[in-house]
Amino acid sequence: MNKIFSNLRNVTLSDWDWRSEGYVPIMFASFTLHNHTAFDIQDVEITCDILDNTGQLIDWNIRTVHEIISANSSKAFENFSMGYVNFQGNFSVPVPVTSTNCRVTNFALAAQSR
Q1: Residues near 45 by beta carbon (within 8 Å), at least 6 away in sequence
Q2: β partners of residue 97
Q3: Are the C-beta atoms of 99 and 29 separated by less than 8 Å?
Q4: Which ranges of the chain does DSSP label H, i.e. alpha helix?
Q5: Can you tell me the distance from the alpha carbon of 71 to that of 77, in angstroms, rounded to the nearest whole number?
Q6: Which of 3, 27, 31, 91 lies in disulfide reach of 82, CB 3.0 to 4.6 Å?
Q7: Residue 88 belongs to domain spanning
Q8: What's the predicted TM-score (pTM) here?
Q9: 84-93, Cβ contacts within 8 angstroms, sequence gap of 24 or more
Q10: Each residue's pLDDT tens digit in the chain (114 positions)?
Q11: CATH number of the domain within which 50 lies
């Protein structure tokens, strides 16, 4: 197995909760990042698939958390902006967003770990 992929499985999300706000809705998320590796990491990329009430993918957002997460530790984030949410359709009858599927898709070694 590829070493990078193996390490990617050891950086995870938990306690995921989100809301959208605004006329042009923006997703704000609260979550905990867990670093189960032996090195400090940073620039953790999170990808969220945005699903409608039928489970159909209607959009996705990718954002990067630029904080350092120490080896074998966790860090909680509150009200982190995940960007615009595309509700598809016009504003009078938008397709409702009912769930997200979010995961860690990339990260970098922290500067002091290199």
Answers
A1: 62, 63, 64, 65, 104, 105, 106, 107
A2: 52
A3: no
A4: 3-8
A5: 17
A6: 27
A7: 3-113
A8: 0.82
A9: 84/24, 84/25, 84/26, 84/27, 85/20, 85/25, 85/26, 85/27, 85/50, 85/59, 85/61, 86/50, 86/58, 86/59, 87/25, 87/58, 88/52, 88/58, 88/59
A10: 444 556 889 999 999 998 888 777 888 999 999 999 999 999 999 999 988 778 888 888 999 999 999 999 999 999 999 988 876 544 444 555 667 789 999 999 998 755
A11: 2.60.40
Residue closest to 74 by CA, chosen among 6, 12, 24, 28: 12
Read off the tokens for 62: 């990718």
What DSSP character marks residue 40?
-
Rounded CA-CA distance 78/29 in Å is 7
- Structurally, the chain folds into a number of domains equal to 1
Q: How far is CA 70 from CA 1, 20, 29, in A?
A: 24, 30, 21
Tokens of 107: 């990260």
